[in-house]
Each structure stands twice: as structure tokens, then as C-alpha cells.
């Protein structure tokens, strides 16, 4: 299939779901922005929602959270729902709280300084509040509600070093727990988690949970366990799924399997060119040296193919894999205009009541693509 240009992608961003194969429908979500990234799907009574961040370039202060709703086989909306003129607002998480509030949780950072990020929470249309979490805290995975009503918010911490620039080399994972409906939070560290980010929770039943991680060294997806409802965690260990230092989405299906959407490739498989950092294009003046010690963050490993991986052993291994979309995955630049970025990344995966898998992901940094995959889609024949 020919690679689409940014203009061709823009022309297709009408939000309409079109059948592209038996059991498979696709859409490019509407957005007024040149850059669109970090989709988050959220099922609700009024339809399927998708949130993402959009603007001109990740890290710029014009980056805001956008939101669209799927209705009658077409995505509607795509407008900004946040607007901080001083900070780049990223990584949205929508949460329908048990008390009836629909909450938006997201990050807000000055430029490329992720270690100065704050986490904000708001009801849509209302004034946000900065959560009492350490600067540099980031979110990406969904909020879960524990059996006792506590809210579980997975975190990763962008840790700075005195006098040195943040590079991701000391990032760690933690779980934030609120027992008063988000008014206050306490944190549970994940031991031995340097380099483990984008913590994603999966309930295993009772007080048992697993969590999965993107990895800064671009080696493998890692996994940890909790046997006490998130109050303590084992040291993360590698699974058999390669990771390229890009986001993953992991859910438990109704049939008990664990499903992961990801780019199953890593730095060892791609020894070619690398990015200096995540924010090369910002051109920010910063004379501080890069942070030393910790892990070795690797940026620029191709972000493709987009793949669904399935596990029958609670996520310890994922032998069954289906390629959803392939391509070069080039991500040496975050530019959404020149056509050099061809990543298919940052998936968000949910299962509908009828068994349809909904998958949304970044498409060439120009658009958010949504796929609706029915249980009879041909790609599932070998794994079901």
C-alpha cells in the first residue's frame, strides 16, 4: 500500500467509519490540528469517546487535549477541551467516577521539561486542579476502581538529577491510590522499576493485579504482580514482547485472555539511527548536561507494526500475535508536516460488549486512526 502524504491523511480526517475488510472498519478522526498523538478510548453511556493531544508539535504550549465521540458510525467533535497557554497539555485519561462525575486527567509541562510536569484533574468545562503529586509525575493508563472503592491511578515519574537535563534515564513507576474520590492521593512505589514507564493495570481477580510497562531502554515489555490490591508490587520482569520505548495498551478480555496492543520490536532489532532526545525539534536553549547514571534511554526505534498480542498465562508470555497494520514506522522526527514521520504508535485498546475490539492509535503524527475489529475479522482466525 502506498504511504500516505500528510495532505492525503488530512483529506481523510472526516471521522467516517468505513469497512476496509470483512469485520474491519477504519476511520481517521476529525481534528483541526497538524499534530495529533496519544489516543485514549473511553466507553460511556453516550457513546465511545476518544481523547488525544493536538497542536503544532509535542512540547509546544499550543498542545491541548482534544475529544471526539463516535455516533452513528462517524466520529464527531475533535475540539480542544483544555487551553493552558503556558504549558503543553498531554496524555489524557478519561474516567467516569462512581460518584457520577466524568473526569479528565492529563499532564501539563513547560516545553520539553517532563520533570517539571504536573498532573491535572477536572470535570469537563470546569476549572482544573493540580493533583498533589510530585513534579514530574505522568499518567497514561486508565484509572481502575478497587473492590473497596479506592481509585487506582498508575503513574510514572520523570525524575530529574540536580544540575542535569531530564532524559528518561531515572524514570520510575508508582501507583497512586485515592480513598476519598480523588481529593487526596498516596503513592506506592514499584521496586526496581527504573526505566519502566506507562504503567498499565490489569485485574486478575480478587486482590491480584498485573501491570505492564513501556521501557526506556527499548528492550522488552516488563510485567509486575500485586497480590494485595496494589499495596505492594514485585520487581518488574521482562515478558517475551519486544518494546521500542513507545506506549502499549493492555486489557483483560471477557474470555480471560490478556490482549496487548503494541509495536513488538526493539533496539536490538533496529541498530540504525537514533534521536538525541524526545524533544529534538523544540530547539530549547538548555546548557545543562544530560543526566548520568540510571538506564540508557533509546529514542528513534521504529514505531511499527501495530500488533495485537494475546496471552493465556496472565500476561507472562504472548505467543499469539496479529499484525493490524505495518509500515516503516519512522520516528526520527516528531514533525507532522514534512511526511518523514510514519509511526503507528501509542495504542488504546478496549473490548465492547459485543466482543468488538476498538483500537485507536497515532497515524504518522498527523491523525488518530480508529479501527473496529469484530470477532469474525479474518485476522483473529489463528488466535481464537
Automatic annotation (TrEMBL):
Stored Pfam families: BNR_2
Ranges of residues in domain Sialidase: 48-359
EC assignment: 3.2.1.18
Highest taxon in the source lineage: Bacteria
Region (Disordered): 224-246
Keyword set, alphabetical order: Glycosidase, Hydrolase
Bias-annotated ranges (Polar residues): 234-246
GO MF assignments: exo-alpha-sialidase activity
Alphabetical list of PANTHER family matching this protein: BNR/ASP-BOX REPEAT FAMILY PROTEIN (PTHR43752), BNR_ASP-BOX REPEAT FAMILY PROTEIN (PTHR43752:SF2)
UniProt protein name: Exo-alpha-sialidase
Naturally occurring in which organism (per UniProt): Psychromarinibacter sediminicola
